[in-house]
Amino acid sequence: RQEILKWNGWGYNDSKFIFNKKGQAEFTGKRYRLSGMVLPILKEWMEKTLGASLEHKITSRTSLNISDVPPSIVNEEFLQDLRATKISYSREAEDRVFRAHGHCLHEILVLREGMFKRIPDIVVWPDCHDDVVKIVELASKHNLCIIPFGGGTSVSSALECPADERRTIVSLDTSQMNRILWIDERNLTAHIEAGIIGQDLERQLGESGYCTGHEPDSMEFSSLGGWVATRASGMKKNIYGNIEDLVVHIKMVTPRGVIEKGCQVPRMSTGPDIHHFIMGSEGTLGVVTEVTIKIRPTPEYQKYGSVVFPNFERGVACLREIAKQRCAPASIRLVDNAQFQFGHALKPQVASIFTSFLDGLKKFYITKFKGFDPNELCVATLLFEGDREKVLQHEKQVYDIAAKFGGLAAGEDNGQRGYMLTFVIAYLRDLGLDYYVIGESFETSVPWDRVIDLCRNVKERIVRECKEKGVQFAPFSTCRVTQTYDAGACVYFYFAFNYRGISDPIHVYEQIETAAREEILANGGSLSHHHGVGKLRKQWMKESISDVGLGMLKSVKAYVDPNNIFGNRNLL
Amino acid sequence: KKRDEFEDILEERRQSSDLRYAMKCYTPVIYKGLSACKPSAIKNSVLQSEQVQYVIKQLSKEMGESADIIQEEATEILDEMGHNLHIGAIRFFAFSLSKIFKRLFQRVCVNEEGIQKLQQAIQEHPVVLLPSHRSYIDFLMLSYLLYTYDLALPVIAAGMDFLGMKIVGELLRRSGAFFMRRSFGGNRLYWAVFAEYVKTMLRNGYAPIEFFLEGTRSRTSKTLTPKFGLLSIVMEPFFKREVFDTYLVPISISYERILEESLYAYELLGVPKPKESTSGLLKARKILSDNFGSIHVYFGQPVSLRTLASGRINRCPYNLVPRHLPQRLSEDIQEFVTDVAYKMELLQIENMVLSPWVLIASVLLQNLPAIDFDVLVEKTLWLKGITQVFGGFFEWPDNLCANKAVTSSLALHTNIVSLVNGQVVLNDMGIEDGATEELIFKQALSILMCGAYRNQLLNVFVRPSLVAVALQMTQSFRKEEIYNCFNFLRNMFSDEFIFFPGIALKDFEEGCFLLTKCDVIQVTPQEILVTEKGNSAASFLAAMFRPFMEGYQIICRYLSKETKETFTEKQFILGIRNFAFQLLETGSTQCYEVLSSDLQKNALAAFVRLNVMKKMKITSGLTYTVNKEALSKTEEMFESQIPKRKLVTARL
Ligand SMILES: Cc1cc2nc3c(=O)[nH]c(=O)nc-3n(C[C@H](O)[C@H](O)[C@H](O)COP(=O)(O)OP(=O)(O)OC[C@H]3O[C@@H](n4cnc5c(N)ncnc54)[C@H](O)[C@@H]3O)c2cc1C
């Protein structure tokens, strides 16, 4: 798998945004619906919105500079013990660097133009639960540090090695533990090894007519174990639930031994749920090896949809009402105006399903007759799933509610396009980096009554901080509401800015990111809805869960892993 | 410190048609996030707001009254309060105020840079205007200025006593003023409706909110200690992050001659103030339609509330309770509000323009009953120098010679002083014989009127002056001892003058620094020495505050003689007044200013604060008792100044 993925950016080697000879943006490869297409407006958008220019390009190095890589220090006795287990391992520089990071901006920048201070000394590939037990025993025996590695999509610095870790760091790559061990059709559960990658899981279950329905945007690359370890959330949680709703049973190997429940039941009252110590433990307690997860028959029918609202406030009000009536479709997302315009910029040349509704008649209709301001309007994308009749009924219900908030149905194509974009949007950062544009996303959850205020204030804060820090072009600062709940919503922000003329962009970037998080917290938002804490957001843990709360987690850690074998130092 | 230039706006008014000016195209810039709506829509959204509805429900539950009836009541409150922007009324005001202002004032000067900054601010974030309050003219003038510069007219939280003035009241309302009752302490419904009304205005960015931190017009020209209620209301939307930021704009309005000057002096002496009726105001205007000199309005730099709050506010309390529930301010928020209020008042003080007359009044009051004109000019110039070192703000053109400045000042204030045979005399002070009560009253009037102008200097002088007083009182070189005394005075006078809370040492150091800067003292790590040259200056600076020193001492003496166990504020004030009259009649004091009810009330507040007196609530109101022990200690602290020995002079 490592072979077909970029070593210094997001996703597959063959898929990336480039500017072709004609100076037009193009998305390469064949994997996505957008692949091979020319995006004529993107260049102008980048110039206008971010002040980027094709003349100012950075060429980053094309391959890893092996001599920069910190040496692998592993003691011989451990190696002997390891060989005896027959578990495969590697001490190659590429393998170790590949597992030294996740996908935070600063990590990618280090890959492009620097080197990590500390990376794993050795990578091991256990094949099954028992292999993991052996590795953890050896690590305890030789006092090593283990960092579990799933898909490597972390965006919280969770995979970064603590620079001052003196012990040998073992990266425990779960990718070989990727089998579906059994499917129980009567109870609709499946027992699966934790290293399986999202898309493989859904494909394989699909062959038997099932799915989990758990679809985080990173599902092409992230693993089941990673989801459990970070408390992940999938796009279609309205039907299937978040990871905590999906798991029925978890097996985790810790230095104290294996932790698991004695039965596989829908619910039990046996004190605090031990699953909740495991979920979100971010690799600090042990390795999740096997998970029993709920499955559902693959839905008969899927339908995309979209609604345009005159402004963001009306859109949020509509989402709130839909949540209140508990009739949210599998997915419902509301993007603000800036992101709506950005989506427009990704419009490909070929007219197909991609025709934007801002074109032709519809644009005329929306702006002239309905009086929508093109610089105010925003759009919700919808995904319905289920049996056909119910979907159509459901669809009508949702559109009726939308109409009460001035929402105008804007077609299936736009909906589908919106979801497709979420998969390719991650590739866009790499393009930006070539042109002095750095960007990142972050998320939060917030009570309904504060959604509007939070969105406005955080975006404004970013703009203001950029200005204060000497960023010369106004940043791209945008948000979308990506999940709805009874009591609130999940909000996802993107921000990007052009750093030409700034001497220490990464520092400036970090200050702005910190300020944005402070702003979120001051607006009553959470530290994280699904990305987790890692090392990036540790500083706010105390204020998030109180002193005593932190103490509780620490005492669990102290019992389960007294020698800090799982020493990635996330969370606490 | 660099300050902006002024521009006289009346100049243009004198040259072009007032009617055309009143009918000009008026399109003020607006807040970028404004959602345009009619006053009636605002009223409705206030009434329907979760906040008001919550209180209505609560009250209905508690009193067993139907919610509809309470809702009705809320509507009435809102109607009484609600402003009503009416372009016709604005134009009427623009026209008539042009006429009136041109008659009353020589110049109305504004710093246009400040206006520009304000214009910028209005577009960015909700704006709160915080002018100083010396006169009814204040808010008329501000609205007039904003209209002149094509800025959005503010909605003003003005006292209800205007409602008595039928026509003016209605006109004011139509030009944007809204009204609050002077006191509505217990009325939760009123408070809820009022607070929500203000916040709705603010959140929508509908128009700048204007109110007076001082709460009421200062009768003494000293800045009054701030009130916090309205300020905490306008800060709340930011605390709850309903707005990204809020700009606070300190505005300093200085009058060369205050319209209400004699009215205030009467009030201070306890002659009941005439009810603010329309005819009263008009009559006052008629009588006083002589020359009132210049007005200076200085719009300060808009202060970002967000910047002030950064790092200071723990957000938790607002995250854990729904935002529409009424919530007690947490302690650190209360402290923050207090600090902001003081900071804003200090900014007002910093940008108050001082006229030459203010210096003259100060000199004259130390040279009663009369002073040689030439000496007066010389001393005025000398005092000007010191004032500038202390950061005082003059509009005194370089080429204007002191002689002229003094002469024209005297001409402007003939009701207070007169020039007789080369001598400048405070009116009514020359008469020697027969210290009758009526004469004393007359003299007190003159002194209080004159004092009101000297008072404009006091907040600029208070830090260095209190150091000078402390030097005089302690008769010591030792810094520590002097500081202790300074601290005592600062505490005692913290209702009298504006001190930023909790920074006594910094204030002391600033005082010392300023005295050093004008060569009055020398400071070593342990000691403070008065220079030979600085002796007279030190005496002068200390003497500026003598009325307060002596006034408080007299009150102490009165209290130690007081035999009643408990008494009310009214009894207290009456008692002191009689006591003071006696002293003045027998000539055993010259401290006329102890007759000022302002001083008396401040002393009362100070004594309660310092536990010299105890305040108790009984059914019929508040009563006070004296703690004799604490009182005699305080007296001692004051007495140490007497006998007045000569200042210790450093041998240099
Ligand atoms: C473009 C993009 C889109 C994303 N979209 C979403 C989204 O929609 N929803 C969402 O929830 N997240 C999302 N994420 C974040 C990330 O994909 C999730 O946190 C994911 O759950 C991480 O899984 P992983 O397998 O990649 O774990 P890794 O990144 O490899 O590891 C993450 C953490 O979990 C630990 N860990 C991994 N596997 C195990 C295991 N088997 N046992 C114990 N600990 C383990 C690691 O030590 C590390 O601390 C996104 C990230 C990117 C880059």
Automatic annotation (TrEMBL), chain A:
Q: Which UniProt keywords apply?
A: Acetylation, FAD, Flavoprotein, Lipid biosynthesis, Lipid metabolism, Membrane, Peroxisome, Phosphoprotein, Transferase, Transit peptide
Q: Which residues form the active site?
A: 492
* One GO molecular-function entry: alkylglycerone-phosphate synthase activity
Give the site residues for Important for enzyme activity.
Answer: 333
Q: Where does substrate bind?
A: 429
Annotated ranges, domain FAD-binding PCMH-type? 116-298
Query: What domain of life is recorded for the organism?
Result: Eukaryota
Q: How does it assemble?
A: Homodimer.
Q: Which InterPro entries match?
A: Alkyl-DHAP_Synthase, FAD-bd_oxidored_4_C, FAD-bd_PCMH, FAD-bd_PCMH-like_sf, FAD-bd_PCMH_sub1, FAD-bd_PCMH_sub2, FAD-linked_Oxase-like_C, Oxid_FAD_bind_N
Catalytic activity entry:
a long chain fatty alcohol + a 1-acylglycerone 3-phosphate = a 1-O-alkylglycerone 3-phosphate + a long-chain fatty acid + H(+); hexadecan-1-ol + 1-hexadecanoylglycerone 3-phosphate = 1-O-hexadecylglycerone 3-phosphate + hexadecanoate + H(+); 1-hexadecanoylglycerone 3-phosphate + a long-chain fatty acid = a 1-acylglycerone 3-phosphate + hexadecanoate
Q: What is its EC number?
A: 2.5.1.26
This protein is called Alkylglycerone-phosphate synthase
UniProtKB/TrEMBL annotation, chain B:
Q: Catalytic activity annotated for this protein?
A: dihydroxyacetone phosphate + hexadecanoyl-CoA = 1-hexadecanoylglycerone 3-phosphate + CoA; dihydroxyacetone phosphate + an acyl-CoA = a 1-acylglycerone 3-phosphate + CoA
Topology in the membrane?
Peripheral membrane protein
Q: Where in the cell is it found?
A: Peroxisome membrane
Any idea where the Phospholipid/glycerol acyltransferase domain is? 127-256
- InterPro entries documented for this protein: DHAPAT, GPAT/DHAPAT, GPAT/DHAPAT_C, GPAT/DHAPAT_LPLAT, Plipid/glycerol_acylTrfase
Q: Which UniProt keywords apply?
A: Acetylation, Acyltransferase, Membrane, Peroxisome, Phosphoprotein, Transferase
Single GO biological process annotation from the record: triglyceride biosynthetic process
Write out the pathway annotation from the protein's UniProt entry: Lipid metabolism; Membrane lipid metabolism; glycerophospholipid metabolism; Phospholipid metabolism
Entries under PANTHER family matching the protein: DIHYDROXYACETONE PHOSPHATE ACYLTRANSFERASE, GLYCEROL-3-PHOSPHATE ACYLTRANSFERASE
Summarize the protein's role: Dihydroxyacetonephosphate acyltransferase catalyzing the first step in the biosynthesis of plasmalogens, a subset of phospholipids that differ from other glycerolipids by having an alkyl chain attached through a vinyl ether linkage at the sn-1 position of the glycerol backbone, and which unique physical properties have an impact on various aspects of cell signaling and membrane biology.
Subunit structure, as described in the record: Part of a heterotrimeric complex composed of GNPAT, AGPS and a modified form of GNPAT.
Protein name in UniProt: Dihydroxyacetone phosphate acyltransferase
From which organism does this entry originate?
Pelodiscus sinensis
Record gene name: GNPAT
